[in-house]
Design goal:
Length: 207
């Protein structure tokens, strides 16, 4: 039985200063993609990726195009080593879905990068207008978490695995949702750790 190849691309949160520098140094085809990205965007995204600082790289308007370019540079380097192998499936976590579409041929590199850049800019604007958060609910059953999210006016953002479900929304509402299960028969195994898992994902500039 012939084996099939599936590609999985990383999402926001996988960024690290220096990402892709080794690829550009060892594989001209990867270096060419980073150069194309800088030209398409009209700025040195590669410098932010390779030199940081991490606060600048983590900005959504930088992080998302950086991950997109890096994922496709990895694929280009892999093809250099293994040949033009067929791709049977492609998927990604969050932003990685856009990289997967480009790998699968839904759109080309230029169109995908422009879409991702605009996506990141719009998300930065949204983050600047409100204070939001995300929290991993560990040990809860999906139906219970969905009901809790509805009761507290937050959203189920991601189902990472059975027993690990992420909620998101206004930070105060996320915190309220996290506090409720500790005092009820919610069925969570690690309620005491939940508050530590709250991630502040957006901010409002001081006035």
């Amino acid at each position: 039985m012939a084996k099939k190849i599936a590609l999985l691309f990383a999402g926001q949160g996988a960024q690290v200063v220096g990402m892709g520098r080794d690829l550009a140094e060892q594989f001209p085809v990867a270096a060419d993609l980073f150069g194309q990205a800088d030209e398409i965007l009209g700025r040195k995204l590669s410098e932010v990726m390779w030199s940081g600082p991490i606060e600048e790289l983590t900005k959504t308007s930088n992080c998302q195009p950086a991950l997109f370019v890096h994922g496709l540079a990895c694929l280009a380097a892999l093809r250099e080593l293994a040949g033009n192998f067929p791709i049977d499936a492609a998927a990604g976590l969050s932003l990685g879905e856009m990289t997967a579409h480009a790998a699968a041929g839904t759109f080309d590199f230029t169109a995908g990068l422009k879409l991702v850049q605009k996506r990141g800019e719009l998300m930065d604007e949204a983050c600047a207008a409100t204070v939001g958060g995300m929290a991993a609910m560990i040990g809860g059953f999906e139906n219970d978490v969905r009901q809790l999210a509805a009761d507290e006016d937050v959203d189920v953002a991601n189902i990472n695995a059975p027993g690990q479900i992420v909620i998101s929304g206004e930070l105060a509402k996320v915190e309220a949702a996290m506090a409720w299960p500790r005092n009820t028969a919610f069925g969570a195994q690690r309620c005491s750790t939940w508050r530590a898992l709250i991630i502040r994902v957006s901010w409002k500039p001081p006035t």
